[in-house]
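Meet the record:
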Amino acid sequence: MASQRIRTLAELLGLAAIAASLVFVGIQIKQTQDIARATMRLELSNTSREIIEVMAENPDAWLVAAGMREPADTVERVRVELLLRGVFRVMESYVYQYHHGFFDEVEWRGYREEISNVMDMPFAREFWGRVEPGYSPDFRGVVSELSD
């Protein structure tokens, strides 16, 4: 009888240890996800900052992209196209991050608005028509939705 109680107690302690381990693993997974989200947001912020710095150093390029003036020459046109390629890649990353659960719906609405604002720019739309096949189907789908 005593050995049965000891065995039952040992089994209960074993189950409690397993349950505690599972809770601990769950907490570690949550912390890892939080760190991944924070890292991803920092990277997006850094990339956005870099693009803003390029625009600040070269405001004429953004005026061309916005359709406020024509490119002065081929070199300026290429600069604007390179700037837009960078902007499109960042926006493509927004879509990827959203589809993988790194943005909630409120955050995603803000990023969609940003994508929409860029795609409303005449030069950006024209350029997108030439480079669209080089981007992910998910990003192309979002741009298409926003263009309708």
Q: What stands out?
A: Residues 54 and 83 are 8 Å apart (CA to CA). The mean pLDDT is 87. The chain is about 85% helix and 0% strand.
